[in-house]
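Question (not urgent): is this output format expected?
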Amino acid sequence: MVKLITFLVAAIPVLMFLKTILGKSKVLREASAEFRKQVDYLVWGILILVGCAIVYSFGSLLYSIYK
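Got this back:
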Protein backbone atom coordinates (compact mmCIF):
# COMPACT_ATOMS: atom_id res chain seq x y z
CA MET A 1 0.00 0.00 0.00
CA VAL A 2 2.92 2.31 0.74
CA LYS A 3 4.26 1.67 -2.78
CA LEU A 4 0.88 2.61 -4.26
CA ILE A 5 0.75 5.85 -2.29
CA THR A 6 4.35 6.63 -3.32
CA PHE A 7 3.46 6.00 -6.96
CA LEU A 8 0.43 8.30 -6.77
CA VAL A 9 2.44 11.04 -5.06
CA ALA A 10 5.12 10.76 -7.75
CA ALA A 11 2.53 10.79 -10.56
CA ILE A 12 0.77 13.98 -9.44
CA PRO A 13 3.51 16.41 -10.60
CA VAL A 14 3.75 14.61 -13.95
CA LEU A 15 0.00 14.87 -14.44
CA MET A 16 0.04 18.56 -13.49
CA PHE A 17 2.87 19.18 -15.97
CA LEU A 18 1.01 17.40 -18.78
CA LYS A 19 -2.13 19.37 -17.96
CA THR A 20 -0.18 22.63 -18.23
CA ILE A 21 1.49 21.62 -21.50
CA LEU A 22 -1.63 20.29 -23.22
CA GLY A 23 -3.95 23.02 -22.00
CA LYS A 24 -7.66 22.54 -21.52
CA SER A 25 -8.29 19.96 -24.22
CA LYS A 26 -11.47 17.90 -24.06
CA VAL A 27 -9.55 14.61 -24.28
CA LEU A 28 -7.37 15.51 -21.30
CA ARG A 29 -10.42 16.59 -19.29
CA GLU A 30 -12.16 13.28 -19.99
CA ALA A 31 -9.02 11.27 -19.17
CA SER A 32 -8.55 13.23 -15.94
CA ALA A 33 -12.15 12.63 -14.92
CA GLU A 34 -11.81 8.91 -15.62
CA PHE A 35 -8.54 8.75 -13.64
CA ARG A 36 -10.16 10.49 -10.66
CA LYS A 37 -13.09 8.08 -10.86
CA GLN A 38 -10.73 5.08 -10.79
CA VAL A 39 -8.77 6.54 -7.86
CA ASP A 40 -12.04 7.07 -5.98
CA TYR A 41 -12.97 3.42 -6.54
CA LEU A 42 -9.52 2.34 -5.33
CA VAL A 43 -9.75 4.44 -2.18
CA TRP A 44 -13.25 3.15 -1.38
CA GLY A 45 -12.05 -0.43 -1.94
CA ILE A 46 -9.13 0.05 0.43
CA LEU A 47 -11.39 1.66 3.04
CA ILE A 48 -13.84 -1.24 2.81
CA LEU A 49 -11.03 -3.79 3.22
CA VAL A 50 -9.66 -1.93 6.26
CA GLY A 51 -13.16 -1.76 7.73
CA CYS A 52 -13.64 -5.50 7.23
CA ALA A 53 -10.30 -6.18 8.91
CA ILE A 54 -11.26 -4.01 11.90
CA VAL A 55 -14.65 -5.72 12.27
CA TYR A 56 -13.01 -9.16 12.03
CA SER A 57 -10.39 -8.22 14.64
CA PHE A 58 -13.00 -6.81 16.98
CA GLY A 59 -15.17 -9.91 16.52
CA SER A 60 -12.22 -12.20 17.23
CA LEU A 61 -11.40 -10.20 20.36
CA LEU A 62 -14.97 -10.44 21.64
CA TYR A 63 -15.11 -14.15 20.83
CA SER A 64 -11.89 -14.82 22.75
CA ILE A 65 -13.12 -12.82 25.77
CA TYR A 66 -16.55 -14.45 26.01
CA LYS A 67 -15.53 -17.97 25.00
